[in-house]
Amino acid sequence: MVQAAPSDQITSDQATASAQISETLGRQRAYFNAGHTQPIEFRLAQLKALKQAILDYQPEILAALKADLNKPELEAYLTEIGVTKEINYAIKHLPTWARPKSVSLPLEQLPAKGRIYAEPLGVVLIIGPWNYPFQLMISPLIGAIAAGNCALLKPSELAPQTSRVIAKLIQATFDPAYITVAEGGLEVSQALLAERFDHIFFTGGTQIGRAVMAAAAQHLTPVTLELGGKSPCIVDSDIQLEYTARRIVWGKFLNAGQTCIAPDYLLVDRRIKPKLLAAMQQAIREFYGDDPAQSPDYARIVNDRHFGRLSQLLPASSAEGEIVAGGSTNAAQRYIAPTILDQVTPEAAVMQEEIFGPILPMLEYDNISEAIALIKARPKPLALYLFTRDAQLQALVLAQTSSGGVCMNDTIMQIAASSLPFGGVGESGMGSYHGKASFDTFSHYKSVLVKNFWFDLKWRYAPYAGKLELFKKIIR
Ligand code: NDP
Questions:
Q1: Closest by alpha carbon to 387, among 219, 275, 254?
Q2: Do 113 and 186 fall within a single domain?
Q3: Hey, which end of the chain has fewer CB within 10 Å, N or C?
Q4: Distances in Å between the alpha carbon of 139 and those of 54, 93, 252?
């Protein structure tokens, strides 16, 4: 349903969806062009309103996340509602970010002033996935508001309860000509992508990311693509064993592994592998008990399609690896136990695509160069994790690998620092956000040169005869 026209339900009828979306966009363009979103006071007020709305709707948000993904309340609070921290950061820094910046100019330009103005882009489209369905809609929205844009949000229909709450919250908080939500499936996505936006911010898989970029190219619309991929986790022998095991187990099995920056697979120094495995098995027991199916703190797979896909990745033969923790499943509950696989080769099925579920393959290395070579032979990942105390090894891995971000001696936490831009590189995405990077993503930096009328040197004007030598002396 497109919120701005609550009387009209968007059905699978593409023509109806297109007509409603065009009308909504027309109103948003008019709102933007009228300059309502420009004043910093307006943007600050909207950010505060968004924060208050999240607080007001907190019980509904948590209930929706429980219904859609069986998200434990604490996980949901930390990873979804925690986005309000990002609002506080934007409110604090927005006046500085939005202030025009003076720059120095070369001598031949003087007398003049150079300034850079951050201006909003216009009407932006934000498309989000189902795995952190609230946070991944609201976090980019914070940047869009701070930068002074109108926004149209398209949550995933695969997290329908959360999609509904987002639509309600936005409708209750904002003028739909300013910010609105288009709920629905493929027909809505396609109708949206046929329109011209001033920016498209997409979070999802690499395959749909390509389709989004192709559609955006028709209008030369810039895109931010927050995609996924296989994020490696290297474990050296010089570590604090229990902390390492806990941090890996937490980062991997949070949201049942359905996290874009979850450690996808382990590359473990052969010398530490038996101890690390024992410590991870212990951590799984500590976190989720002897039977994680009974734990209130363990999420479920989002739908039957993903459950089927993940079940296929559990090794049916020793050629595909050996289950050394977990492995049990329950289709009716879409439950897959926290699972660790040993004896996995780079050719195994589980090593071909992003796993995006609670299955953790372990590969081993004798020399770090083998681990680095394996990472470099694959598309650039969204995150790279390295557990080691060895500063030289840290520097080596940093220098020899490329990834969206890196986290040393922990997992996931890199996403929670507003001062660190978050985004991918290569197949894991383009562009970044969070904190100032969000403001930058949704702004155009307009360069302005201001000259005066004090005097007018004629050197650059025709006739040029005899002036070239002078220019060669000035500009070199
Ligand atoms: P998808 O790419 O399948 O979907 C993402 C969004 O695109 C959804 O809203 C979906 O709608 C919509 N969509 C589906 N088909 C189209 C289409 N043809 N045109 C336009 N939009 C479309 O991703 P998932 O939702 O399955 O999320 C999982 C992926 O997202 C993983 O690869 C994960 O790594 C990545 N991800 C990346 C993050 C990051 O920050 N970099 C964060 C979280 C996830 P609908 O669901 O309604 O069909």
A1: 275
A2: yes
A3: C
A4: 12, 16, 22
Which residues have a catalytic role annotated? 226, 260
| CATH code where residue 364 lies | 3.40.309.10
Contact in structure between 170 and 3 (CB atoms under 8 Å): yes
In the chain, how many domains are there? Answer: 2
Compute, in angstroms, the gap from residue 135 CA to the centroid of ligand 1. Answer: 14
Same domain, 222 and 254: no
Cβ atoms within 10 A of the Cβ of 96, count?
Answer: 10
Establish whether residue 227 lines the binding site of ligand 1, counting it when its CB lies within 6 angstroms of any ligand atom: yes
Domain span including residue 69: 14-227+429-447
Instruction: Summarize pLDDT for 416-439 with one digit per residue, the tens.
Output: 999 999 999 999 999 999 999 999
Atom of ligand 1 nearest to the CA of 157: 47
What's 20's domain CATH number? 3.40.605.10
* Residue 8, pLDDT above cutoff 60: no
Beta carbon of 37 within 6 Å of any ligand 1 atom: no
Ligand 1 lined by 163 (C-beta under 6 Å): no
Q: Do 406 and 440 lie in a common domain? A: no
**Per-residue pLDDT, 84:** 84
